[in-house]
What does this fold into?
Amino acid sequence: MGKKWLILLSSFAILTFISSLISIFIVLNITNTKSEINGNTLISNGSNYQNTIITYYTDNNVSLNNLNPGDKIIKKFTISNENSNDLKYKIVWQNVQSTWEDNNGNPEEFTYTLTCSKGEKISRKMPIKDEIIIEDLELKTNEINNCTLTIDFININDNEQAYNLNKSFNGKYNIQIER
It folds into this structure.
C-alpha cells in the first residue's frame, strides 16, 4: 500500500507543477499581448494598456515604386485609448529603404504630411532611414485620435523631373506606446 501512495503523491505533485507552469504562461501571455485581426491591431503592453486599439484602415506598410509627379497616397489610422489611464505614444517610420537620395534625386519633391484630429500636423520630406515622425503625444482615457498620412510626389510644372523617376520607397509607419 505504501508504494501506491508514493506513486499517487508523485503523480499529484507532477500535475500540480505542470498546471502551475501553464498558469504562469497564461498570465504572462495575457499581460503582454499583440494580436492582429483583419489588419487592425490591438495592442496590450502590460495590464495598464490592454484596451489601446490602433486601427490601420489600410496596411501600414508603404511600398512605392514607379511614382509619377503628382502622385498622392493617403493612409488613415486611429488610436483609441479605452484604458483607465492616460496614454503616451509616438509615431515612427521603421524598416525604411529609399533610393530618393541616389543619383541626383531631389528628395524635397517627395514629402509626407501627418494630420491628426487632436491638432497635430507635421510636414516633411520622406525619410531615407528610420526616424520619429512625432513624439510625446498624449491621449486621455476614452479619447480617440484620427490621423491621415498623405504622401506626395510634388509636381513641379516647369521641370520634367526625370531625375526622380524610377525611385522607390519602402517602409512602415507605426505607433509605439511609451506609457
